[in-house]
Amino acid sequence: MLDLSNYILSPEWSILSSKAIFKETYYPCCPEPYPDISFYILIERQSKFYSYILILPCFLLSWLTLVLFWLPPETPAKMVLGR
C-alpha cells in the first residue's frame, strides 16, 4: 500500500486503490540483484466536474444565443443581450 498522506484531493480525480510491488531480478552476467519497483494506481475521473465546468456554461451560452432570435428586432433588450 502506498502512503497517500501527502496527496492533495482533486475535484477531477479520485484514487480507488494503489499498490507498490518490489522485485529483485538476478541476471547471469552480474552477481548483484537489480531492483525493480512498480507502482499501480487506479484512478477514476469525476464526470460531474466536467459537466459543471465545461458542459453547463456551453449549454447556457447556446441557449442565450437562441433567445436573441426569439426577440423582435426592434426590442431594446436585444441590443443589450447582443453586446
UniProtKB/TrEMBL annotation:
<keyword id="KW-1133">Transmembrane helix</keyword>
<protein>
    <recommendedName>
        <fullName>Neurotransmitter-gated ion-channel ligand-binding domain-containing protein</fullName>
    </recommendedName>
</protein>
<dbReference type="InterPro" id="IPR036734">
    <property type="entry name" value="Neur_chan_lig-bd_sf"/>
</dbReference>
<dbReference type="GO" id="GO:0016020">
    <property type="term" value="C:membrane"/>
</dbReference>
<dbReference type="InterPro" id="IPR036719">
    <property type="entry name" value="Neuro-gated_channel_TM_sf"/>
</dbReference>
<keyword id="KW-0472">Membrane</keyword>
<feature type="transmembrane region" description="Helical">
    <location>
        <begin position="49"/>
        <end position="71"/>
    </location>
</feature>
<dbReference type="GO" id="GO:0005230">
    <property type="term" value="F:extracellular ligand-gated monoatomic ion channel activity"/>
</dbReference>
<dbReference type="InterPro" id="IPR038050">
    <property type="entry name" value="Neuro_actylchol_rec"/>
</dbReference>
<keyword id="KW-0812">Transmembrane</keyword>
